[in-house]
Structures are given as C-alpha cells and as structure tokens.
Amino acid sequence: MGSLTLRGISKSFGATEVLRDIDLEVHDGGFTVFVGPSGCGKSTLLRIVAGLEEPSAGDVLIEGERVNDRAPADREIAMVFQSYALYPHLTVRDNMALGLRQARTPKATIEARVAEAARMLSLEPLLGRRPAELSGGQRQRVAIGRAVVRTPKLFLFDEPLSNLDAALRVNTRVEIARLRRELRATMIYVTHDQTEAMTLADQIVVLNAGRIEQIGAPMELYRDPANIFVAGFIGSPR
Ligand code: ADP
Ligand code: MG
C-alpha cells in the first residue's frame, strides 16, 4: 500500500549539511525505524518524506512515484509527533474528525472512520472528553487516531513515546505494533530508544551526523554491526 524510496537525499540549512546522500528502500507494509544520536538528522529526514521540508538534492518516491513536487496534503502520509499537537478546545471526537472535515470528506465516512479508529485504539469511552481531561498516554492515542482516520499509505512517527513514562511507553508500543498488523500500513518510526527499535522494526536505519552507518534487520545489526558506532548504539543499554 505504501512503499517508500529515497534516492540520494541531501539537505543543507545554509552552509550546514545535515543529511548527505541518503538512499533507502522501505517495502510496502514495512516497519522501518530510524535511530541515531540527537541532531543526526532523523526528524529532518522524516519531514522531507512528509513534504514539510524540501531536500537540497535527491528524490522521494512513494509507490514508485516521485512526490517531490507534491504538497504534504497530497502525499497520503500522516505524521505523529512527540508533542501530540491536539486542539485543547475540541473533544477527542472532533480532534480526530477535524482533518477529514477540512478535506470535505462526507459526514457518514467521517463518523465511520472515527468509530473504527476509536475501537482500534480503545478510545470509545473518551470520545466526548477534551485533551486536558486525558492522561499523556491517552493523548498520544488520540494523536495516533487522528492519523489513522486519514487512512494514509505511510505513517511517520517522530519519537511518539518520549514524553510518556516507562510503563505507558511499553503499552503504547504494543498498541502501535498491533495497529500495524491490523492496518497493514507502512510505518517509519524515529526513536532513540533501543528497545523500541529492536522490538518494532523489521528494518533499522542507523544514522550518524547525517549519514547512514548501517541498514539491517534488528538481529543483523545486533550480531554483525558494521562498525563501533553501530555496535555501541545497538549493543549497549541506555
Ligand atoms: P534529530 O531529529 O536527529 O535530533 P534534526 O533532524 O532535528 O535531528 O536536526 C539535524 C540538524 O539540523 C541539527 O543540527 C539541527 O540543529 C539542524 N536543523 C534542523 N532544522 C533546522 C532548520 N530549520 N534550520 C537550521 N538548522 C536546522
Ligand atoms: Mg528529532
């Protein structure tokens, strides 16, 4: 439903190069995790995929089609942020429905999709509440629900669990894994948490200073790291 190809992606902000010549293939239905130290370019790469940032060079292809010139709204991508970004004055139901209303989706379709997302994410009892009446974990589930109702080809998660405490992180991680199986969607997930990377990914991309150090399945990187950097990142507990 949403394969992704990156070809020779580079990005500079002024004289500062933050990404250099990134090539990547994410297969349809794949779960790819970007890991790497703070400032290595993970969010910038996600933003380029989403169309929120323009690459200085290179191509972004979704299902084999070049989307560089497509606006974010036309890329069939949904992004979930660490900060939730919910509207405080709107109920859970309206937070989830807003994007679809703006896209003039028929009312019956909106209701059906919100109901289905609420079921998947166990949000049914919370639909009438406002964000201030929710826990952090519940807010993040609403933010994920808002992505789900848009039925994107590609989900992008930027450190979605880093504001949650340890127990909630585990719960929400399990939910995301379940959602992935249920939706059969392609997901790209940024984290600096090794456990998240090892348990969620079928492919891990290790980034360092804007370059790819290694790409592989979790156990491949664990057993056969390409260099000391990868070994240190995947091997040592945080
Ligand atoms: P990560 O998500 O891996 O922590 P980022 O992609 O946010 O890293 O940032 C990579 C580098 O690019 C950092 O050095 C950051 O300061 C820089 N950067 C990100 N966005 C901008 C911007 N809009 N203008 C200038 N520099 C930026
Ligand atoms: Mg980041």
Descriptive overview:
- By secondary structure, the chain is α/β, with parallel strands linked by helices.
- The chain has helices spanning 42-50, 92-102, 107-120, 136-148, 166-183, 194-200, 218-223, 228-235; strands at 4-13, 16-26, 31-35, 57-62, 65-66, 77-81, 154-158, 186-190, 203-208, 211-216.
- The protein has a six-stranded mixed beta sheet, with helices on both faces. The protein has a four-stranded antiparallel beta sheet with strand order 2-1-4-5, covered by helices on one side.
- Strand 9 and strand 10 form a beta hairpin.
- Helix 2 crosses helix 3 and helix 3 crosses helix 4.
- The longest helix is centred in the last third of the chain and has 18 residues, at 166-183.
- It is globular, with a radius of gyration of 18 Å.
- The two termini are 35 Å apart.
- The chain binds adenosine-5'-diphosphate and magnesium ion.
- Residues 13, 18, 36, 38-44 line the site of adenosine-5'-diphosphate (ADP).
- Keywords: ATP-binding, Nucleotide-binding, Transport.
- This is ABC transporter ATP-binding protein.
- It comes from Amaricoccus solimangrovi.
- Residues 4-234 form the ABC transporter domain.
